[in-house]
Amino acid sequence: MVYNTVLIPAATSTENLQALEEVKDFFTTDLGRGGNERWIYHILPEEVLDSKLVELADPQTRSNIDIITFQSCDAYESLNQDRFSAEDWDLPGGRWSFNAIYDGHCGHDTVEYVQSNFPSLVKASLERLLQTSGPGYLVDPSQVSRVLFKAVQQVDQSIVDALFRLFPQSQLEQMSEDEVEQHLHQHQSEWSDLAARCTQGSTVLAALSDPSRCHLWVVNLGDSQAVLGLRSPEADNGWSTKALSSSHNGNNPDERQRVAQEHPGEPHCLADNRLIGYLAPTRAIGDTWLKIPAIYTQKLFSRHCSDWLSLPRSQLFAS
Fold it and tell me: PPM-type phosphatase domain: which residues (predicted)?
């Protein structure tokens, strides 16, 4: 935590004292990110804090789902990059419940793209599966798992495919810098959206339950966690809990081992328990620049993506 010190001359005026009184409970933090950027925060008395939390939490109930989310900053550029979905789908055979959270990083574009596209893709695929099922619309649970798995892949691949349509690799390899700039100028709007989605990312944690409420599917990509609460007379508070997902980040030994095995001869693929010392989640939708040939970073992102380059140097050194 970084504290700012205000020095007051011995003969300071009453106006300066009043100004100091007004800001005495304000401090700055780097949010643990390093670099020179600072965020201002206000220390509130406990009684004020409680009411402020209620105000900002925006608690909701949709069907049988209780929702709470926090946006502690009003300015769009300072909003947290967390999003959620809570939907009921009337499909053949009854009502399905879909709930998901998406933890974005490096910006809002990718997480909002995932929020807009992932639920509808799951719903459409699930509806097609149910329409081709047997009597009673009964499906093999493994088929529903496959729907979720494929939906994650398809949303992520859609970002890659859009970039490759705009710049096929064979074409990009032959283009001069002037030709790249001209092509970007001709497709400026498309490039703006793609550049953001390719240099940002989002985790996905989703739960899907069938009309009978006898089956629950969970899909996880990233470092959020699903926890199942079960009523248990034997527990002290009447509930027991069970983790349904594991974290995909550098703090998970299994993930560290997986990444190292998939990148033999690349000792710096993980540094400080982050991908190339930069990214905390080891699996996510987006972060496309890490998944495609390096020429895209060399010719496109590093030269024509100003928002990406404006990140603190501590977040860019490995790129």
Answer: 72-319
Q: What pLDDT digit, counting tens, does each position of 255-312 carry?
A: 999 999 999 999 889 999 999 888 999 999 999 999 999 999 999 999 998 666 544 4
**Helix (H, G, I), strand (E, B), or coil: what is residue 274?**
strand
Q: Is residue 230 part of a domain?
A: yes
Q: Which of 289, 315, 282 is nearest to 303 (CA)?
A: 289
Question: pLDDT of 208-238, one tens digit each?
Answer: 999 999 999 999 999 999 999 988 888 788 8
For residue 318, what pLDDT is reported?
34
Lowest mean pLDDT, pick from 1-10, 187-196, 226-235, 287-296: 1-10
Residue 34 counted as domain residue: no
Angle at 89 between CA 86 and CA 95, to 5 degrees: 115
- Could you please report the per-residue DSSP string of 22-68? HHTTEEEE-TT--SS--EEEE---HHHHHHHHHHHH--EEETTEEE-
Instruction: Tell me if residue 257 falls in helix, strand or coil.
Output: helix
Residue 239 inside a domain? The answer is yes
Query: pTM for the complete prediction?
Result: 0.82
Domain count, the chain: 1
CATH of the domain at 106: 3.60.40.10
Phi and psi at residue 248, in whole multiples of 5°?
A: -100, 80
Phi, psi of 231 (to 5 degrees): -65, 130
Within a domain: residue 75?
Answer: no
Distance from C-alpha of 269 to C-alpha of 287, rounded to nearest angstrom: 15
Domain that holds residue 198: 81-247
Single-letter residue type at 305:
C
